[in-house]
Amino acid sequence: MTAPRSAEPPDDELTRLAVLHGVATSYSPSPGRTVAASAAAVVAALAALDVDASTPEATRAALTAREGHLAQRLLPPTVVCWNDDGPGSRDTDVPGGHDTGDIGDTGDLDREAGARYRGTQGRDTGASDRGTGVQEADVSSTARRPDKGSPGRETSLAAVLSGLPPGTRLRVETEQGETRSTVDRDLPPGVHRLTATAPDGRTGEAHLIVAPPRLPTPSGRTYGLLVQLYSLLSHRSWGMGDLGDLAELSAWAGRSLGAGFVQVNPLHAGVPGAPTDPSPYRPSSRRFPDPVHLRVEDVPEFAYVTDDADRERLRALLERAERLRAAVLGKGALIDRDAVWELKREALEPVLRVPLGPGRRAAYADFLAREGQALEDHATWCALAEVHGSDWSRWPEGLRDPRSAETARARAALMDRVDFHSRLAWLTDAQLAAAQRTARESGMPIGIVHDLAVGVHPGGADAWAQQDHFAAGMSVGAPPDAFNARGQDWGLPPWRPDRLAGSGYAPFRRLLRALFHYAGALRIDHVMGLFRLWWVPQGRPPTEGTYVRYDAEAMLAILVLEAARAGSVVIGEDLGTVEPGVREALDRRGVLGTSVLWFERDWEGDGRPLPPERWRADCLATATTHDLPSTAARLTGEHVELRHRLGLLTRPLEQERAEAAADTGEWLALLAALGLLRGTGGGHCAADEEAEIQAVHRFLLRTPARMIGLWLPDTVGDRRPQNLPGTWDQYPNWRLPVADAEGRPLTLEDLAASPRLHALTDVLRAGVRGEETGGAGGAGEEDRARAGGGDSRSGA
C-alpha cells in the first residue's frame, strides 16, 4: 500500500492532473516570489472535484482518464462567443480562463480567426468580419487544434471550432427558440445550445454563451453615497435601517444633494435564528433578499388588519420597536438584528393573513412563476429551519436532500410556512424595486448600487438547495501574505467550476438576474473570485490551501450578458493583491474597478501618492470603505489607537503611530501642493479636520474616475469603522449606527439637517458638474507642476 500524499510539493504526474482540473500547484504572494502548494492541498482540492489522487497509482489512473476524455470529446461543456469582431476590437490574454479546470489564457474569436469561419473553414471567401460563421458540414481539413500549451483557449469559440474534425456538422438552438446551422456573430445574445456531430458518429453538446463585447461606459461623471443600510436609522426604523429608509435617503440624495447613486451593503437573506452572524457577507442566500429590511408599515396589507387582537398586538410591537430604536439612538445600545427580526416576524404574521386583492394576488403569482424552483427551495429551507435549526447539515438525514421524498412530505406538511416565506421574499423584492424606482425618479442616473457577497453560509439555504454545485469539505479564504502571515478562512463553501460549466453557469445566471431586477448597479465583492479562489480544506489552516481556477471568460460573459440586459453598471472590488491581467480583463469588458485614495501610490516607482491625473478613469474612487478606518479616524490617527486598545498591533505602538502619521502626512502634503488644502493647523481641531476631509474629496474630483463614492459617516466625522477585520467579539462589527464625531448616533433626519454634510456634498455636486477642481477631473498644468506629477499613465 502506497503512503498517502504529504506536505511535500506535488510530483510531475500530480501537477499534470492538477493543471487539467484547474488546481494550482503554486502561487505568487508577491512579485518575484513563488510558493509551492503542498501535495496534500492539491489532493484535497481534487477530491472536492471528485478526482482521486490519494496515491500515485490513483493519480496515474485519474490522469489517464482525464486525458482520454479530453482527447475524445468534441465540445467542452460551455463555449464562449463575444460579439466584438468589429473595428477597434482587441485580443487579450485573460488569466484563469480554462475548460472546467484547464489553466491557461482564454482569448476571443478575433478577426483573423473569424475570417476562417465563413463557409468552408480555411477557405478565404472574402466575407466581411461581421457575420462570419461555420456552415453545417463545412469544417475543413485546414482546421488545427489549439496550442496544447494554452488549454484555456479551448472554451473560446475560435479554439473550439478550430479543434473540430473536418466535416463536423454544427447546429445551434437559441434560447429564443430558433434552430440555426451556422455559428456566427449574428447569433442573438443569450445562452444557447450548440451541438456538433463528427463524421465518425461522435456527438457533443455545449452551452454557447453569446455576450456583448462590453458593458456601456456610464455616461458623464457622478458621485454617490456609500452606506451600510442597517446603520442608517430614521424616526420610523425598527432599531436598524430598512428599505423605507433606503428609499427616503435616495429621494433626498437625488433631489437635494445631486447624488447619482446610493451604494449599500449586501442585502442577501441572512441565516435566521438567534444569535445570528451579523455580517452581511456571510448570508444564507445570495439569490433572495433579507426580509429583516422590510418596512412593515409599507406592506399594503398592514392597513387592512381588522382583527382586534391582531391590531392590539401590532400596537404593542410598534411600541417595542420604538423602544428598540430609542435604545440605539439614545442609550448607546448596539444594533440587534435578532431583536429587530423577532419583532418584524411577529408583526408580519397577522399582516400576511390578510387576503390579497385580485391584483396583488396576480402579482404574487407572477413572482412565484418567475422565481420557480429556486424560491420553493428557499422557502422550504426557511420553513424547515424553523423546526430543525438553521444548519441543514444537522437535520434528519432525509431532509438534507432538497429532492428527497422526505423533503417533499415535509414541504407539504409545512405549506403554510413555505407560503409565508415565499410571501416575505415577494414583499422584500417589491420594496427593493420601489427603492430603485424612487432613486431614478429623484434624478439619479444609476440609483441603488447593490453588493454581491463572495459566497454563502455553509449551513444556509443556497448551500442546501445547490449542494451539487458546491465543493464539499472546502472553504474560501486567502493565502498568507505580507499583511496576514496565517492566511484567512472565510467559512464560505466555493462553487465547483466543473459543475458550473456543466450547467451553463445556471446558478450564476439566475443569481445575477435576480439582483439586476432591482439594481441600478452591482458591486462584486472580491471580483478576483471570477478568476480563481483560495480553497481551504475544512479543519486545516488557511496556509494549507491552494488556488482553484474558474473559467473567467465564461463568468465574465454571463456577467456582461445579464448586466447588459438589465442596463446596469458593474463595479468590481479589486483591492489588494491582484494577479496580472485581471484588471485588464475586467476593463476590457466594461467592469469598473475600485480605487481607494490611501492605497493609490506609485508602487512601480517611488511609492509616493499617485497624482490625480494618473488614476484610472473606469473606476469607483473613494476615500474609504466599510472595512477601513473612516477618513476622520485616519487623519487623526485614531485607527491606530483603536487597534492598540484591542491588542491587534503586531509592532510597537510608537512605530505604528509614526508610520501612520507619515503616510497621512504625504497625502496632506500632496493636497496642499495641489492647492486643495490651505490654512489648516494639522488636523487638531474640528475645522481643520473638516477642511482636510473636503480636500480629500476635492482630490478625488481631480482624478478622471467616472464614479466618486462618499462614505456617508465621513460627512459627519464618524470615527468608528463598521467592520474591523481580524476581530470577532472584540469589536461590534456590523452593529454600529452612523454617528457624529463625538459618537452620538444620528438619524436620517439629523443627517438631512447637518451643515457639515451639506458643505461636503456641495463640493462633490459642484465637482461632478465641472464647476470646481478642473472640470472633468484633470488637474491643471500649474497643479501638476506644484505636485511634481509625472506622466499620465494609468495607475493600478
UniProtKB/TrEMBL annotation:
<keyword id="KW-0808">Transferase</keyword>
<dbReference type="Pfam" id="PF02446">
    <property type="entry name" value="Glyco_hydro_77"/>
</dbReference>
<feature type="region of interest" description="Disordered">
    <location>
        <begin position="172"/>
        <end position="191"/>
    </location>
</feature>
<dbReference type="InterPro" id="IPR003385">
    <property type="entry name" value="Glyco_hydro_77"/>
</dbReference>
<feature type="domain" description="MalQ N-terminal beta-sandwich">
    <location>
        <begin position="174"/>
        <end position="212"/>
    </location>
</feature>
<feature type="region of interest" description="Disordered">
    <location>
        <begin position="768"/>
        <end position="796"/>
    </location>
</feature>
<dbReference type="Pfam" id="PF21226">
    <property type="entry name" value="MalQ_N"/>
</dbReference>
<feature type="compositionally biased region" description="Gly residues">
    <location>
        <begin position="787"/>
        <end position="796"/>
    </location>
</feature>
<keyword id="KW-0328">Glycosyltransferase</keyword>
<dbReference type="InterPro" id="IPR048458">
    <property type="entry name" value="MalQ_N"/>
</dbReference>
<protein>
    <recommendedName>
        <fullName>4-alpha-glucanotransferase</fullName>
        <ecNumber>2.4.1.25</ecNumber>
    </recommendedName>
</protein>
<dbReference type="GO" id="GO:0005975">
    <property type="term" value="P:carbohydrate metabolic process"/>
</dbReference>
<dbReference type="GO" id="GO:0004134">
    <property type="term" value="F:4-alpha-glucanotransferase activity"/>
</dbReference>
<comment type="similarity">
    <text>Belongs to the disproportionating enzyme family.</text>
</comment>
<dbReference type="InterPro" id="IPR017853">
    <property type="entry name" value="GH"/>
</dbReference>
<keyword id="KW-0119">Carbohydrate metabolism</keyword>
<feature type="compositionally biased region" description="Basic and acidic residues">
    <location>
        <begin position="172"/>
        <end position="187"/>
    </location>
</feature>
<feature type="region of interest" description="Disordered">
    <location>
        <begin position="82"/>
        <end position="155"/>
    </location>
</feature>
